[in-house]
Amino acid sequence: MRGGNQRVEEHADGEWVVRRLTGSSSTKTYRCPGCDHEIRPATPHVVAWPLEGREEDRRHWHTACWSARERRGPTPGRGRR
Ligand SMILES: [Zn+2]
Asked: CA 75, CA 73: separation in Å to the nearest integer?
């Protein structure tokens, strides 16, 4: 697999490409959309973007926040009746 630790995960709102970054490959500060807090450099975390989307749409998440998202079930606003 190219780039190592990357896979496709199936979520309630579609398929996501998920890449797990190690601390040593994280050199910038990102903002996690799950908790709206910063992800400091050298923090192992998750990068995810929709399989149907573009890689430019990718978001950086804390590993725990990404897992919590998975458990929360369907995301409001999409697929809502
Ligand atoms: Zn977070």
From this structure: 6
